[in-house]
Amino acid sequence: MTDYKQGILKLLKGLGLFQLARYVTRKRLRILCYHGIWMDDRQPNPFNFLFMRSETFSRRMDLLDRLGYPVLPLEEALKRLGDGSLPDSAVVITIDDGWYGTFRNMVPTLTARGFAATIYLTTYHAENGTPVFGVALQHILVTSPRRVLDGNTTRIESLNGRSHDLDDPVARDFVYDQVAAFAESRLSAHERVDLLAEIASTLQYDWAWAASSRQFGLMSLTEARECSADGLLTFQLHTHRHRVRHNGASCAALEIAENRQRLLRVSDAPTRHFCYPSGKWQSEDFAPLEAAGVRSATTTDTGLCSHKTHRLALPRVLDGERISDIEFEAELCGLMELRRTVIAALRGQPRTAKIS
């Protein structure tokens, strides 16, 4: 956000509009959405919503505490949203994927403050101990010192015969797509790690750092079990392979079943809350989720939840490293939600999916 827009928000706060918005939206549930922590400031972080600094996350949690937002477990909050007993301006903290940085940094921050949180754990990489291929590849292509990839230095035939300028977004996306397709169709999880190391070496990227830091890895199932021991943090469904469709067909039922099976090694608590991979959803997803016993599902649509919001299409407030504190507070108090509601009304558009 520009300095000008931040200045406007500070002015609106000074005029009391943040407090007014908080009052108007007090019966709405704020579900915060986080992902992972960027663990080494010496390495460039091109991601905004995927990884934030641990200091940023700690500051946000301090802000919740200082401003008096009650933090509730997800299941309790949804129950109380439905029966009308939700505390004013209640907050739920959700964390997607289950990155190692979440285990190392976010979990201690939450437990020190006594904040409950739901971690939606995708279990394929957690079980295999391998980095998330697509995210690691993206970081290599965006930040590597060598900015031209000689296609003849790779074993990927579709890249051979020419050079690829990685500073050109179109060329970089082409390389990403070709490498990802090759890995998906031909390689095992551990063979994909070898491919990442090869490409990193070609581009003079420090793969030893990426591997040893576990920046692009998830917490293990054993580490997740350690987190869940005191009951403050709960682990819920995010599919096994981070997908609900494969080759154009729904695979939600299988993915949830395999995910749920692995989560039994983390905790014996019921797994009935779900997060759509990458936040992408459509109403056709509701039937397989309901059949799998899913009671709620979160998206990456931005917004607050009312008692009328469909429980399988819950919006959230996404937080990121390049979100300023004043922007975060404007979302938290409901000012930005009121703005979105007015704009949607003027356009004749519904804000969120409703319970039918």
Automatic annotation (TrEMBL):
Record SUPFAM superfamilies: Glycoside hydrolase/deacetylase (SSF88713)
GO annotation, biological process: carbohydrate metabolic process
InterPro entries found in the cross-reference section: Glyco_hydro/deAcase_b/a-brl, Polysacch_Deacetylase
UniProt cross-references to PANTHER family, sorted A to Z: POLY-BETA-1,6-N-ACETYL-D-GLUCOSAMINE N-DEACETYLASE, PTHR34216
Name of the featured protein: Polysaccharide deacetylase family protein
Source organism (scientific name): Azoarcus taiwanensis
